[in-house]
Amino acid sequence: MAVEMLQDWCRWMGVSARRGLLILGIPEDCSEAEFQESLEAALWPMGHFTVLGKVFREEDNATAALVELDREVNYALVPREILGTRGPWNVVFVPRCSTEELLGRVFHFLEQQGQTVDSVPGALGLELDRVCRLQSVSQAIQPWVETLQYQSLGVFSGSVQPAPGEEHFEAWLDHTTDMFQVWQRVPEREKRRRLLEGLRGTALYLVHGLLAENPARTAEDCLEALTRVFGDNESQATIRMKCLTAQQQSDEQLSAFVLRLEVLLQKAIQKGALERTSTDDVRLRQVLTRANLNEPLGEALRRLRMIGRSPTFLELLGLIRESEEWEARLVSNLEAQVENEAGDLNISRCHHPGKRHIRGPWKGRS
User: Domain Paraneoplastic antigen Ma-like C-terminal, which positions (predicted)?
Assistant: First the structure.
C-alpha cells in the first residue's frame, strides 16, 4: 500500500519512482528545522535530495513526505528508518525487483523443487509464451533459491539496553554469521542491503558512515567493524584512553581517521566510558588537537567549537570530505599548470634552440 502511494505520488509530480522516497510517521508538530536536520543526517550518504511535498495521513495520525534523490535509490545505503522526532520514521522505496523478475525467480524455484513450467500457468493465470520468457529471465539471474528462502536478520541498534524487538549483540552476531554462510552465492550488494535492513540507531549510522567513505566495502567488512565496536571485552579505562589518545597517522586521510575514531567513541559509549551526550564535543576536540587540518577547515571547526555547536559524526565527515575534495582539485589544478608551463617551455626551446627563454616573473631574462 505504501509503495503504491509512493508510485502514485511520483506519477502526479512527474518524477521517477526509482528516485523517490516516501517518509512516513512524521509527527504533525515536527518543526521544519527538525525535519530537515533528521533527513540530512540519514540521507546524506545517498547524495543530494529535494523534499517535493508533505501530506497529513489520518490513518497514521502523522505526516508523510515525498523526497526526490538526484540519482536512483542505492539499495546498499538507503535507511529503513530515520531517527526523527519522537521515534523512528519509516522509509518506503520501490523494491529492487520488477514483477517479471520476481515471477522468474518463482519459476526457477519451482523447477528446483521438481515441478514443470507447464504446471505453473494455470495456477497463475499466465499464457505459456509469457511463462517461457520469464523462465529465461530466471535462468539469467541464477541462482535465486536463496532469495526465495530469504530469512531477514534480527534487529540490532547498538543500544546498551535493547528496545522491545531488538537483540543483544552476541545473539544478533551469531544469527548474522550463520546467515552469511547461507548467503555465500547472494550478490554483494544484496548482502549489504540485507545487513542494513537489520540495523537501527548507532549501528546503522556507523555502517552508513563506513559505506559513504568507501562504497566498495563488503558486508563482511561492515560486520567486522560492528564486531570491533560492540563485541570485545576491553575495560572502560582502556577504551577511554584509546579515545583520548587517538591521532591521525602520517599516511592516513583525515576522513579515515574520523571513521577510526568513531569506532572507538561508539565502543566507549557501549562500555560506559563516555556519555553519549558528550560524543560530538569529544570528537571535535580530538580532530582539532590530534589531526592535520588545512587552514579553512581548521578555522571553521574552531568557530563551531567557540559557539558550542559541535557537529555530529555525519556532519563532520561531510565537512571533511568536502575539504579533501577541494584539496584534491587544488593539487590537480597545480599539476596541470606545471605541465602546461613545461609544455610552453619546450615549445619555446624548439623555436629558439640557441637561446633559452623562460616565461613567468623572470620574463626577458636569458
Answer: 156-317
Cell of 127: 499464457
For the chain, which ranges sit under pLDDT 50?
98-101, 117, 120-131, 133-149, 355-366
Sheet holding 87-92, edge to edge: 49-57, 62-69, 20-26, 87-92, 81-84
d(CA 113, CA 131): 17
Cα separation, 10 vs 68, in Å, equals 9
Q: Which residues pair with 238 in a beta bridge?
A: none
- The contacts of residue 191 (CB under 8 Å, 6+ apart) are 180, 183, 218, 219
The reported pLDDT for the residue numbered 140 is 42
- Residue 361 phi, psi dihedral angles, 5° rounding: -60, -25
Could you tell me which of 131, 130, 176 has the C-alpha nearest to residue 153?
176
Please give the model's pTM, rounded to 2 decimal places: 0.39
Could you read off the pLDDT of 220-271 as tens digits, one per residue?
A: 999 988 888 887 656 777 778 888 888 898 888 898 899 889 888 887 887 7
What distance in Å separates the CA atoms of residue 198 and residue 12, rounded to the nearest whole number? 32
Helix axes 295-306, 313-351, angle to 10 degrees: 160
Integer angstrom CA distances of residue 124 from 34, 103, 258, 332: 47, 10, 53, 59
Contact between 76 and 193 under an 8 Å Cβ cutoff? The reply is: yes
Q: Residues 85, 215, 287, CA angle at the centre, nearest 5°?
A: 65
pLDDT of residue 38: 87
Coil vs helix vs strand at 96: coil
Is 120:110 a contact under the CB 8 Å cutoff?
Answer: yes
Closest CA to 141 of 78, 180, 97: 97
